[in-house]
Amino acid sequence: MFSKACEYALKIMIYLFSVQSEGNLAGLKEVAKAIDSPEAFTAKILQVLVRAGLLQSLRGPSGGFRVVDRPITMLEVVIAIDGDRIVKNCVLGLEECSSSHPCPAHDKFMAIRDHLKGVLTTTQLKELKSGLIAGNRFLKL
């Protein structure tokens, strides 16, 4: 559904929320290991999340990454990494697709797209950390 980078970004954010709830920051190596992602790829994703204003990067021996102090939805992360195409673009890839100029699949997928946007908009990543902390939810095999 999402790009690999977006999947990793969502995992990164959930992981950092869980670490941060214990008052800690996490460095690149720790984050990459926690979500089972290559370090170089993780570093690029972290940079994008920092530029998007979703994470802060703190330098130094006790530095690392932390989530900014505000609620963050899944949609914000998806848009930061993949853009808004999943909730806006035509399922058939047409440049112009609307209620007044619909593609053949428009009506079928409009409801799905609207529901997905609603779920992504109302799901705050902070909510998803509790299962990780409790040990009954996982970010890797």
Automatic annotation (TrEMBL):
GO terms for molecular function: DNA-binding transcription factor activity. PROSITE patterns: HTH_RRF2_2. Pfam families: Rrf2. One of its GO terms (cellular component) is cytosol. InterPro entries: Tscrpt_reg_Rrf2 (IPR000944), WH-like_DNA-bd_sf (IPR036388), WH_DNA-bd_sf (IPR036390). It comes from the Bacteria. NCBIfam families: rrf2_super. This is Transcriptional regulator, BadM/Rrf2 family. It comes from Algoriphagus halophilus. The lineage of its organism: Bacteria, Pseudomonadati, Bacteroidota, Cytophagia, Cytophagales.
